[in-house]
Design goal:
Blueprint (H helix, E strand, L loop, with lengths): L3 E8 L2 H5 L5 H12 L5 H10 L3 H8 L1 H4 L5 H4 L5 E7 L2 E6 L2 H18 L5 E9 L5 H18 L21 E6 L4 E4 H8 L1 H11 L1 H4 L19 E9 L2 H6 L4 H34 L12 E7 L2 E7 L3 H19 L10 E9 L4 H22 L3 E6 L8 H9 L11 E2 L9 H13 L6 H13 L1 H13 L12 H4 L8 H8 L4 H14 L1
Parallel strand pairs: 10-11
Antiparallel strand pairs: 1-3, 1-4, 2-3, 5-6, 7-9, 7-10, 8-9, 11-12
Length: 526
């Protein structure tokens, strides 16, 4: 059995690199750099290392996708290297010689410093790698070395400053690139991100051209169909559950390749279906006063690859779109992929809703934290989960600390979630949350907006005020919606929990037209 030198590379903290700016265009440029990192940048380094011309290198690179079952190094003695996988900020490359493996890493990281400054790459090299023998053990060992190197080495990834060179707030050297919009020179990292924005914009619109029709994807956060005076956006971060383990359970290199190819395909196809559904909904949304959709779609992907998706959208579409994407993705993956995880594929999401002018990076951090909280529920109970948070400029700190502070003076928590998406019978199912929302909509004669605001205020005031308010409402014929098997509707809470503040909060961010759309989709399924 032939043995080779395996080089594993992984972009460290992709989210930090992408979302380090509050400018959407910088985020989009950074995302494009990560997504295309292994398309062109390694070619020159591989050509110089292996003494090949660039066209020969390109022909070798494409083989892993064209012939995933074929081990090129076994079949062609003249091939000095082959690609194991290039996907989602990760790369696995096999070399015949150790010297060439090390030389490539040196040349490629130098290329990154010049053409993609700010990208932090973790690297591991392993000798004696056999692509089709004990692959799970070998890939696990390779990833263990990668994590060890990642925690041990902190390379400089931007050009160093000199005493006569201006720097930005992160001490990054200011480049000769002049930003006309801002009227100033910018640092090399930002300049690299902005240099690819046009390519990123054109490529995305071209890829979805037949779906988006006369619409386009925007590069501005204030062009997602918001209305003046009620302008909200949402950052949505979705991540597949246990995907790292699923990839590392591959039986061979060819299996590993196929999993990577198929998962990327399913994620992109799922997003395409979501886009198609949005376009079909636009006429209906345009009839609602919450939306002012003109030339741009009310959604824009930022990170899309593998099992990982982050997008920005109109704040009042976020919960609906998040649930739809997870449903489409899990259903497609469980139907079309082999070697399913024990409980099938599932995903978790964090949805951060904020005013349009709220700092972009901070909103993403909250979405990521919410996704982590949702994943904690998955680890305990399985399934797909969603957590959301409506950001108020008056509150600071982590989501957990804010929630804890809100409930410390009450006998119940003011937040009921996270919510499970694939078990309607569960007490914390998204179905029960939205059924309660529909109840309030349907009883709008009694539960008018002023009364709903009073109800929310009564929950914050405490049990005595809440009880008085509910008695008064009962006299008018207004009662709380029943929820699961618990008698929450009798006094508004039980066992230190209450589902109703969440229902009231999301009414502003889940228009009735979306409830009707959701019900229509469920009926079509049946």
């Amino acid at each position: 059995m032939n043995q080779y030198y395996a080089v594993l590379m992984d972009v460290v903290s992709i989210q930090k690199y992408v979302f380090s700016s509050n400018e959407l265009r910088d985020n989009l440029g950074a995302s494009h750099i990560v997504n295309t990192l292994f398309d062109d940048l390694p070619i020159q380094a591989l050509a110089e290392t292996c003494h090949l011309d660039t066209e020969e290198v390109r022909k070798i690179i494409v083989q892993w996708k064209k012939n995933p079952d074929k081990i090129l190094l076994d079949d062609d003695p003249s091939a000095p290297f082959e690609v194991g996988v290039f996907s989602g900020g990760k790369a696995l490359i096999l070399f015949r010689e150790e010297s060439k493996a090390k030389e490539f890493v040196k040349k490629f990281t130098k290329e990154l410093l010049l053409k993609a400054p700010g990208i932090h790459l973790a690297v591991a090299i392993m000798e004696g790698f056999m692509p089709n023998q004990n692959f799970p053990g070998q890939i696990a060992e390779l990833y263990a070395r990668l994590m060890d190197n990642r925690n041990r080495y902190f390379p400089v990834t931007t050009l160093p400053a000199h005493s006569i060179t201006a720097t930005n707030y992160e001490n990054e050297t200011i480049s000769t690139h002049y930003n006309r919009d801002e009227g100033k020179y910018i640092d090399y990292v930002t300049a690299a991100k902005q240099a690819v924005i046009k390519d990123a914009y054109s490529e995305l619109n071209r890829e979805y051209a037949e779906l988006i029709k006369d619409y386009s994807f925007t590069t501005r956060v204030d062009q997602l169909g918001q209305i003046e005076g009620d302008s909200y956006i949402a950052i949505v971060h979705i991540d597949g559950n246990g995907m790292g383990n699923w990839f590392q359970q591959s039986s061979s290199l060819s299996d590993y390749r196929l999993r990577s190819i198929n998962m990327e395909y399913i994620t992109k196809q799922s997003f395409r279906k979501l886009i198609s559904e949005i376009v079909d909904m636009i006429d209906k949304l345009s009839e609602v006063s919450d939306f002012n959709i003109k030339d741009n779609l009310p959604l824009r992907p930022i990170i899309l690859g593998g099992d990982d998706l982050t997008f920005i959208c109109h704040g009042k579409l976020s919960l609906f779109l998040t649930e739809r994407f997870i449903h489409i993705w899990t259903q497609t993956a469980n139907r079309e992929l082999n070697n399913l995880p024990d409980q099938g594929f599932s995903a978790c999401a964090g949805v951060a809703i904020a005013k349009t002018k709220y700092p972009f990076y901070r909103a993403y951090q909250i979405a990521e934290e919410l996704c982590v909280l949702a994943k904690e529920c998955h680890r305990d109970k399985g399934g797909s989960w969603l957590d959301f948070f409506i950001i108020s400029g008056t509150k600071s700190g982590s989501v957990e600390s804010i929630r804890e502070a809100e409930g410390k003076d009450h006998v119940y928590r003011m937040y009921f979630g996270p919510y499970i998406l694939d078990r309607p019978e569960h007490e914390k199912s998204i179905d029960r949350l939205l059924n309660g929302l529909e109840y309030f909509y349907n009883d709008s004669e009694r539960w008018t907006n002023p009364y709903l605001k009073e109800l929310r205020a009564a929950f914050y005031a405490g049990p005595e005020v809440l009880n008085t308010f509910l008695i008064d409402m009962a006299a008018r014929g207004g009662r709380l919606p029943e929820h699961a098997m618990s008698a929450y509707h009798l006094r508004g809470y039980g066992d230190g929990k209450t589902p109703y503040p969440d229902m009231i909060d999301i009414m502003e961010f889940y228009p009735r037209v979306l409830l009707e759309r959701r019900k229509s989709i469920a009926e079509d399924k049946n």
